[in-house]
Amino acid sequence: MTTTTESRFCSVCARQAGLSPAGYGGAAYDRIIAAELPLPWPVGMFADPQRMPPEVIAVMQHIRDEYQRTHRVTIRPLAIAPDRDSSVAGMRRVIAWHRPAGPFAQFDRTEYLVPEDRLGPLFYALALAPERLDDFATYGQEHGEVRDLLVCTHGSVDAACSKFGYPTYAQLRRIAADSGGRLRAWRTTHFGGHVFAPTLIDLPHGSYWAYIEPDTADWLVSRSGDITRLSLHYRGWAGLPAPFLQVLERELFMRYGWKWLHYAKAGRVLAQDETAEPDEHGHAELAWAEVQLDYRAPDGGAGSVTARVELIKRIEVIHTSGDDETYAYPQYAVAWMRAEPQ
Length: 342
Description:
By secondary structure, the protein is an alpha+beta fold. The N and C termini lie far apart (51 Å). It is globular and about 55 Å long. It has helices at 10-17, 54-70, 119-128, 159-177, 214-222, 244-256, and strands at 31-36, 75-80, 91-98, 108-115, 147-152, 183-188, 200-203, 207-209, 234-237, 264-272, 288-296, 302-318, 326-340. It has a domain at 6-240: 3-Layer(aba) Sandwich (Glutaredoxin), CATH 3.40.30.10. The strands form 3 sheets. Strands 6-5-7-8-9 form a 5-stranded mixed β-sheet. The chain has a 4-stranded mixed β-sheet with strand order 2-1-3-4, with helices on one face.
């Protein structure tokens, strides 16, 4: 039975209200960059010149400017906490995942271990100046086909992330210790959606997950069994924009099962609601969109699905743990879909 204290956490209220995470995988990023940075992690630290090199501050300003111009964010900066088994004194690990050209199944990864005073220049090169990356070639790290699970434990953003995220991280780290280096678990800063805590990103695939408790984490790591038991935990794929294409992609993931992770995918919006009024930030909450998702299996088989995805209702829950202010979260569903000839 949920205690009165726990019911003040946003993600507890969300689960009690039946809030679905479908379509809440965040932006369709071109680059996700995770830099090893010691705790504590105060809110706004990436824009704090007392904590960050000037190159990181410049990247953050670029992200803000890009958002003002386009209402899109293509770069996601993250911090990962130092790990007692892999951190090196005086050095910082930086992992970057990049969107490949064309349809894809997972992001490309590069990794570096650089002296602390080189973190800023490397971060800037990864984000905005790839022509400078040759300067860091000697710091490159090779880990083969490694899978990284990034769990948000950023309690200064929302207490639910630390309370519920840390036990999930700890369980994943125990599993990773027996993986022979094929799996790594990281504590990370906020990447959106604390109402779905414990939440994580599974990279290099780029899938976002919600409400991942320690026992659920075992299912996610194994990637075996009936995928539909995780249907209420899947937020969406970072390779597609939210929410409409992500909702369709989720539907296909649940139908095809775990093999879907290996299918190269691309999507586009064919038509959408033109009656929605933009808010003060330039966003318009659309009631529906017709979308198309093309996919190709590793064996060469291909398909295309067209669907109409609709906003079906809103669920109102507190947005921040311990606060009384609520937000009406849109909920989406596939109204119809059909396979298109190839």
